[in-house]
Every structure is written in C-alpha cells, then in structure tokens.
Design goal:
This protein is an alpha/beta fold. The chain is built from 15 helices and 23 strands.
C-alpha cells in the first residue's frame, strides 16, 4: 500500500512512489510513499491559502482540542511510533521512543499555549487614547524538515504553527517519510479542517523549490544543510517572507584538568557518538587541556571498546547504523581526510558487518588533531570526533569559539569560576556544563549563532516570535 500525500483534506496519490529502506537491514522495506510533483506542491499552497482566513480566526478551544488529542495519541502509541522511527532512521529503539515522547510533549505544550494567547494594553503618550499590542498569525507557513529527527523536528514546527493560527505546507525529508506521515495522519484525524495542514512528500529540488518560488508562502522554517539554508534565505528575501534556518554545527566539548574524568568521558561519548553522531548538536571537537589529555584519551578508548553497534531494534544496541550509503560514504571520506591531514586515528573508524546488511560504522576517535584541519572545521554528521590538545582554559575557550558555527558548546569542569565564565563567553546558542552538548528540553528555546542559525528561536514560548506578527492598534476613547 502506498501512503499518499495530504492536500486540501484529501489523500492524493503521486505520479510515482519511492521506498523507505531500513538502514539496519537494507532488505527491509519500511513502506512505499507517494512522491509529490511541483503541481501537487502548488495545489497544497493554494489549499493552505484558502484555509487561512477561517483557521486564523478559529477559537482557541478548537485549536487546543486538536493539539491535545494529537499529543494524547502520540504518547499512547509511543512504542509503535518509536519503533517505526528507529526502523526508518536507524537510531536505537530507546532513542526512537524517547524522541516520540518528546513530540507528544511538544504538542501538549502548544495545546496549552493556545489557551495562553495574550497581548498588552498600554496607555498612549497622548490623552484619551488606548493602545493594544497583539500577535496575529503570519499566514501560510512552509515547513521543511531533515531526516535525523523525523518526528521531533516536525512536531516543534507544526505544533506552534497551528497553535498560533497559521496554515501549513509540510515537506519532510524524503529519506524518512514514515514518521512524518504518521504525525500528519494523527493531526488529520484529530479534526483539522481541510487545507490547514498539507503534506507533500518528495524531492527538495521539486517540492521544496515550488515552496520557495511561491509568493503565497508567507514564512518558511527550515532545518538542514548550510548550502540549502542559504538557498532558502535568498529565495525568501526575493519574496520578502519571514524565514528561519537551523543549519548544523561543529560543536566543541571542553575538558579541563579539574574535570571529573568519568563525567567527562560519558558526556563526550554521548555527545559525539550517540544517535550515530547524526545530530546537529553533536560534539565532534573534544578540546582537552594537557594535564588530563592522556588519561581522557585512554578512558575514551576503553569506553568506546564497550559500545554495542548493531541493529537499532535489537535489545542492548547503543549505537545503530548510519542512515544510508551516501552518509556512510561521507563519514568514511572524512576519516580518510583526517588521516591525510596528519591526525592519528586512535580508535575505530572501521566498517562493521552484522547479522543483517546495513550501514554499520565503528565510531572513530582522532587524536593529535588541530583546529585548522578539515575534520575540525567541517560538519561530518557521523560518529567521528577529534581530540584537540590545548594548554589551559583560555586556549580551550579560544579554540572552542574558533568556528564558523555556534549551535551548542559544552564544558567538563568542577570549577565554578570556569563554568560561569564559559557559560557567558562561549559563542553558542546553547551551553552545557558537565552534560552532553546534545539534548534540549521540549519547552525551552532551541537555536544557535553565527552559521548555525538565522532568525528567532524554536520551541517553547519563544516560538511565537516566528509564527506570529505583532500588531499595534490605537483607539480614541
């Protein structure tokens, strides 16, 4: 059975279908999904535009009920949906279920936000005049999501868009359509009016481009590569639309001499290698002061020896496969580049065979790296990390900030002085102390600086900045 696109409240077959393959077992076809055309995308945009006037003025209880019902179903089906997610993306079953729970929590949060919509009433500087400041929906929102968080990222974009009264055209990553299709199906059955949420699966060069080209898309929120993000920005400027970009990172994790070695190693392993390193918040630069360097490297090697890399659905698996052959090729290319640049491959980096054919890669740890090497400058997006030796805290901070990215930054230290200084001076949108750089709560803002992000923050109450526009109204008493 081919899963169809949702356009104007109807499930529509595409001109062709594509297969969703399990990276843990390439013989396993997760499902077949309809590929939308540019005309389908334009029809979805037209439907969203037509639905906007009524939805933007819908009652807060109607929106609340739909988002709350969606949250309840996602949480009730967390094991089933988490298994689907892990099967199509390759992260472990525990991670898949955890991500699904996060999606449910996000919808629950924004169901509550529907009931907390508020503005301000201020006196004018002039007598007998009142001023009201309110937030109104932007209009048709285009949503383009990546493959590495196939249910959480769609949730943290779709939920606020609907909460604040916008209509949506949603294009998920073609590599992982199953989780996105499921979340749209749940929202559709929860009672969304036709045209309010439209799903167009397919190629970014076709469906995404149609969204970028349309003057009827009033805002676009995008998470993905830096190159594509720049194209989204250029197209959006031409149409004078709002745009929001999340484009990755080259996140540092600093380990100081005074760090608790066990805490530092666990945080570094989690940051660099869990979710197969396929997180924009992953730490691929481990910046370690010389007093603890050798002990840290030795402890990392021992910890990495004990990692279980296998089928994402198997009990006991700690790291699943890379998502597909293309990403695996990119990872192994960077491992070769690191060797050519003079870094030492201290552990891992080997292709692995398991009971089923899949894209298995042993996590790789380089030492003797410098911050000038490509493996320290460019986002690899796989389980590959480099240790950079530095003299002291001051050099560690300088190296941590010496990057064109600025999403997440972490430090392992028992010094309150250094922790406080690092939180203030790390050039990143999110800072972690004695914690992995990956892992952000569902109700707090997410986003970075420099080349990692553009526009207002995602998640939590800060999402209102992107999904609404501010109106100031005056009334003569």
């Amino acid at each position: 059975m081919v899963q169809k696109n949702l356009i104007d409240g109807e499930w529509i077959a595409g001109s062709e279908a594509f297969r969703n393959i399990n990276p843990s077992d390439t013989n396993d076809v997760v499902g077949e999904y309809a590929r939308a055309s540019a005309d389908d995308a334009r029809a979805a945009i037209a439907a969203a535009k037509a639905a906007f006037p009524a939805w933007s003025r819908s009652g807060i209880l109607e929106r609340h009920a739909i988002l709350r019902k969606t949250a309840d179903e996602i949480l009730a089906r967390k094991d089933e949906l988490g298994r689907l997610l892990s099967r199509e993306e390759g992260k472990t079953l525990a991670e898949g279920i955890g991500e699904t729970v996060r999606a449910g929590q996000i919808f629950d949060f924004f169901a509550g936000e529907c009931l907390r919509l508020a503005g301000e009433v201020l006196p004018s500087a002039r007598p007998n005049i009142g001023v009201e400041i309110t937030r109104e929906p932007v209009g048709v929102v285009g949503i383009i999501t990546p493959w590495n968080f196939p249910i959480a990222i769609p949730a943290w974009k779709i939920a606020p868009a609907l909460c604040y009264g916008n209509t949506v055209v949603f294009k998920p990553a073609e590599l992982v359509p199953g989780s996105s299709w499921a979340i749209v199906d749940i929202l559709h059955r929860a009672g969304l009016p036709k045209g309010v949420l439209n799903l167009v699966m397919g190629k970014g060069s076709v469906v995404g481009q149609a969204m970028l080209d349309s003057p009827d898309v009033h805002a676009i929120t995008f998470t993905g590569s830096t190159g594509t993000g720049k194209r989204v920005a250029l197209a959006s400027v031409e149409h004078n639309r709002k745009y929001q970009l999340e484009m990755g990172g080259k996140n540092p994790f600093v380990v100081l001499d005074d760090a608790d070695l066990g805490v530092a190693v666990e945080a570094a392993v989690n940051s660099a290698f869990f979710s197969t390193g396929q997180r924009c918040t992953a730490s691929s630069r481990l910046i370690v002061t010389e007093g603890i360097h050798d002990r840290f490297v030795a402890a990392m090697g021992e910890r990495m020896k004990g990692l279980t890399i296998d089928d994402a659905l198997k009990a006991g698996t700690q790291i699943g496969p890379v998502v597909d052959q293309s990403q695996l090729n990119q990872d192994t290319d960077y491992i070769a580049i690191g060797k050519q640049e003079g870094a030492k491959l201290a552990f891992g980096g080997e292709l692995l065979k398991r009971d089923t054919p899949g894209f298995y890669l042993q996590p790789a740890l380089f030492t003797e790296a410098t911050n000038a090497m490509r493996i320290s400058r460019e986002e690899i997006f796989g389980p590959v990390a480099s240790v950079i030796r530095v003299r002291d805290y001051d050099e560690a901070l300088a190296v941590a900030n010496d990057t064109p990215f600025g999403l997440s930054s972490g430090i392992a230290t028992t010094s309150l002085k250094h922790a406080t200084h690092f939180k203030r001076n790390a050039e990143a949108g999110m800072v972690m102390v004695n914690l992995p750089t990956a892992g952000v709560d569902f109700h707090v803002p997410f986003g970075g600086r420099k080349g990692s992000s553009h526009g207002s923050r995602e998640q939590g109450r800060y999402a209102a900045e992107f999904y609404t526009t501010v109106k100031t109204a005056y009334t003569l008493a």
